[in-house]
Design goal:
10% strand, alpha/beta, four-stranded parallel β-sheet, 9 helices, single chain
Length: 215
């Protein structure tokens, strides 16, 4: 007798939930493993690790997945902020072919490519932002688009005040925005998500789109 689709669907949902929980535990543990605070352990929940420089990059990746209607954790994809590209060698050795045997993907700034190369990452397995993800997002949305997001988040007046600081006046608005995102803890991560959501599926930067399409 054929199993009712409602039962099949409930079973699939339960399986996805269990897998997602396993991926999230893996994500929490990976930083400890990379720091040498605990031994790495393979889990069947994770098939691919996406290595990104920081929390803002992770927020952007997850925001695009949300736009696409995907739960990366349920798909067996762990998105790991490394705390800087210099850590890629440690993470690649720990999680890649010489370690846990996971598929590896990555996202980095243009100036950080040598770190990825020295870690043995194949060029086809990571995407490069010019000059970085914030720059890509500012270009994708344009100045007016980014300022519209700032206004929606209640930060446009604060940005206008920031622009008047003596050190900022000689800079272009794009460079001012770039600096503004990094001046307060958590702001860069917050806008990594909000700018991607504002860009939407059609205007999201190419490196981010290619990365998500590869996992």
């Amino acid at each position: 007798m054929t199993e009712p689709s409602s039962i099949r669907g409930a079973r699939d949902d339960a399986r996805d939930t269990v897998r997602a929980d396993g991926v999230r535990r893996f994500e929490r543990a990976a930083a400890l493993w990379a720091a040498g605070a605990a031994d790495a352990r393979r889990t069947d929940a994770v098939e691919t690790a996406v290595l990104v420089e920081g929390a803002s990059d992770r927020a952007a990746v997850l925001a695009l997945a949300e736009i696409d209607g995907r739960d990366l954790a349920a798909d067996g994809v762990a998105v790991l902020p490394m705390g800087g590209a210099m850590s890629i060698r440690r993470y690649a050795a720990l999680l890649g072919p010489r370690g846990l045997g996971l598929g590896l993907r990555g996202l980095c700034d243009a100036r950080e490519v040598p770190f990825f190369e020295r870690a043995g990452m194949l060029a086809a397995d990571y995407q490069v932002c010019e000059p970085d993800l914030e720059g890509e997002l500012i270009r994708s949305l344009g100045l007016d688009g980014v300022e519209a997001v700032l206004a929606a988040e209640g930060d446009l007046r604060l940005f206008r005040t920031f622009q008047q600081q003596p050190a900022q006046r000689p800079r272009s608005a794009e460079k001012q925005l770039h600096r503004f995102f990094g001046t307060t803890a958590g702001r860069k991560e917050h806008y990594g998500r909000e700018l991607v959501l504002a860009a939407g599926a059609d205007a999201v930067p190419g490196p981010l789109r290619r990365l998500l399409d590869s996992v």
